[in-house]
Amino acid sequence: MGKRRNISKVSKDRALDLVFNATNKDLNLVCPAEVGAALGSLLVAGYSRNEILAHCHEKHRNIIDSVISKIDRYTDQIRSCPK
User: Fold this and answer.
1) Which residues contact 45 (CB under 8 A, 6 or more apart)?
2) For the chain, what percent of residues have pLDDT higher than 70?
3) Domain ranges for the chain
4) pLDDT band at 6 (very low <50, low <70, confident <90, very high)
5) Residue 83 burial (10 A CB sphere; 0-12, 13-18, 19+)
6) End-to-end Cα, the chain, rounded Å
7) pLDDT of residue 1 exceeding 50
8) How far apart, in whole angstroms, are the C-alpha atoms of residue 72 and residue 68?
9) Sign of CA dihedral 54, 49, 56, 4
10) At CA 66, angle to CA 43 and CA 35, rounded to 5?
11) Fewer CB within 10 Å, N side or C side of the chain?
12) H, E, C per residue of 30-71
């Protein structure tokens, strides 16, 4: 795992709570942008896919894993753009 960036404990806890609470509800009742932002924040901070998925409700892990894959793909595309 890469070096973790410093994000405040409040931000990390809020992001983990958002992901955990979102996946314990009907995903249709959750704002996708908030969950995506929370996942992005955790990934940028250096948390691994497995650490994040450990906080998700089991029945929604595949969906969250898919979102993480898309974030990773877009991040790779952004990094490969010429400066």
Assistant:
1) 4, 5, 6, 7, 12
2) 73
3) 9-80
4) low
5) exposed
6) 26
7) no
8) 6
9) positive
10) 55
11) C
12) CCHHHHHHHHHHHHHCCCCHHHHHCCCCHHHHHHHHHHHHHH
Per-residue pLDDT tens for 9-24? 657 677 777 776 665 6
46: left (phi over 0), alpha (psi -120 to 50) or beta: left
pLDDT in tens, 17-44: 777 666 566 656 667 777 788 888 888 7
pLDDT of residue 44: 79
Determine the length of the chain: 83
